[in-house]
TrEMBL record:
Protein name: Methionine--tRNA ligase, cytoplasmic
Superkingdom of source: Eukaryota
Protein keywords: Aminoacyl-tRNA synthetase, ATP-binding, Ligase, Nucleotide-binding, Protein biosynthesis
GO aspect biological process, one term: methionyl-tRNA aminoacylation
PANTHER family membership: METHIONINE--TRNA LIGASE (PTHR45765), METHIONINE--TRNA LIGASE, CYTOPLASMIC (PTHR45765:SF1)
Pfam families attached to this UniProt entry: tRNA-synt_1g (PF09334)
Coiled coil: none
Substrates-to-products reaction catalysed: tRNA(Met) + L-methionine + ATP = L-methionyl-tRNA(Met) + AMP + diphosphate
Amino acid sequence: ITAAADAWARGAAALPKPWQPQKPVLPVEGMRNVLITSALPYVNNVPHLGNIIGCVLSADTFARYCRLRNWNTLYVCGTDEYGTATETKAVEEGLTPQEICNKYNAIHADIYRWFDISFDYFGRTTTPYQTTIAQDIFQRLLARGFLLQDTVEQLRCEDCQRFLADRFVEGTCPFCSYEEARGDQCDKCGKLINAVELKNPQCKLCRGVPVVKPTQHLFLDLPKLEERLKPWLEQSWATGDWTANARYITCSWIWDGLKPRCITRDLKWGTPVPLDGFCDKVFYVWFDAPIGYLSITANYTDQWERWWKNPQQ
């Protein structure tokens, strides 16, 4: 309080001159370098106040604070554009998935400009960099033995002649009996669901009744990481600032034992899987979308690795 009162008494002339970063903003030796990302808003809707408050506003506030502290700050965001929800919206509006993404990316960007959200760069995930980086990470996982292949039972709509990805299926939740549960999660009780567990499943496209058939998919072999993850978590909890809720959720996954997680989907709209036998599939959006933070930074600057692979700064 005394320091604040002294600074106030000295007046604005005594304040440090505002830092003017170079363009593009890159890490600077000897400065505090801060990279800020806010959750990538999904592209199939018009953002409202709740989205802005829960997504970009808190990061924007922090970015402004960092700049006032004269920290070298980069704030990036962009629309998350792949996945089933985009295909579903495209069907609803009679457009292609790419047209839907172009339409809603522009709407998002205009709204955030109107609210004066101070992004250094607002991008999107449907870019060549996204494909390059996601496929590179996939190839590294494959080379290190962290992927496995398995046959899974999946719902197929014979009328539409396609396997139905999670959000192309609706039915009754097997846990709480909610009648509009999706094929990946119940929005009422929050439990994760395997689509074949749904009662009274329906294809969202034609309202037909799908049948269960086998199909091949790729999985992250998460159990291989469990023993390495535990000591990392303990160190991170001791030195970091995790909320009680974040600790509890993470612990619940560890207590139950990590399970292999499917990273491919029978869709057309997504990052292609670069592996023989899987070229007709794309990456599951929750494998692909977090990589969007990297690819959006890469679209901002070709020196993106200085932000993402530079722990010394």
